[in-house]
Amino acid sequence: MIKEMIVVEGKEDTVAIKRAVEADTIETNGSAIGEDVLRRIALAQERRGVIIFTDPDHAGERIRKIVAQRVPGCKHAFLPQELASYKGDIGIENAAPDAIRQALSELRTETAASVGSITWDDLMAAGLIVHEEAAKRRLVMGKLLGIGYANGKQFYKRCTSFCITREEFDKALQAMEQQEQG
């Protein structure tokens, strides 16, 4: 049983979560999150803690951002797009139970005091920004670091707010470069 409440987008996501683990969910019912849902999430965070587990797409990232801004201190679970895709549809509901359990075992928590050790220059040197393959490289690094895909600015924010260490970053960068070499 997972202690925290898991925030998902809809009923099918809840079904997928319950196939994988024993947990309670709060459904946002899409990206137009109502005030009542945000209040329930805030109450859940106070009483049990919250894990945000939204789809790895634009709408899911929008929901993640809204919830994280309104309810600080949430934990985050990320699922790579290729593990959440079925016939062109991307969503948690398409993920295998093992993939969901894996994502829930690699939670990240945002901290208010963003003091990560990764700098903007580190991202540039790693080819994660201002590089012809930056988006592709961020996709791989996001997966390796367990922080999901994001644009350059958001990727930097995640590195700092999830307090990605120099050691974690360097290890992921080395793994990415090994993958690229074949």
Can you describe what's shown?
The chain has 182 residues and is an alpha/beta fold. It is built from eight helices and seven strands. It has helices spanning 11-20, 35-47, 58-70, 97-105, 120-125, 134-145, 152-161, 166-181, and strands at residues 5-8, 25-27, 50-52, 75-76, 85-86, 89-90, 108-109. A five-stranded mixed sheet has the order 2-1-3-4-7, with helices on both faces. The protein has a two-stranded antiparallel sheet with strand order 5-6. Helix 1 (11-20) crosses helix 4 and helix 6 (134-145) packs across helix 8 (166-181). It is globular, with a radius of gyration of 16 Å. The chain starts with a strand and ends with a helix.
Write the layout of secondary structure elements.
Layout: E1 5-8, H1 11-20, E2 25-27, H2 35-47, E3 50-52, H3 58-70, E4 75-76, E5 85-86, E6 89-90, H4 97-105, E7 108-109, H5 120-125, H6 134-145, H7 152-161, H8 166-181
Produce a short descriptive summary.
By secondary structure, this protein is α/β, with parallel strands linked by helices.
Secondary-structure-based class equals alpha/beta
**Unreliable runs, pLDDT <50, ≥5 residues?**
none
Question: What is the string of helix and strand elements?
Answer: EHEHEHEEEHEHHHH
Count every beta strand, where a strand is a DSSP E run of 2 or more residues.
7
Strand content: 5-15%
- The general outline is globular
Number of helices: 8
**How would you state the average pLDDT, rounded?**
93
Return Rg in Å. Answer: 16 Å
Beginning-to-end CA distance, first to last residue: 40 Å
Order of strands across the main sheet = 2-1-3-4-7
Report the major sheet.
5 strands, mixed
Helical fraction: 40-55%
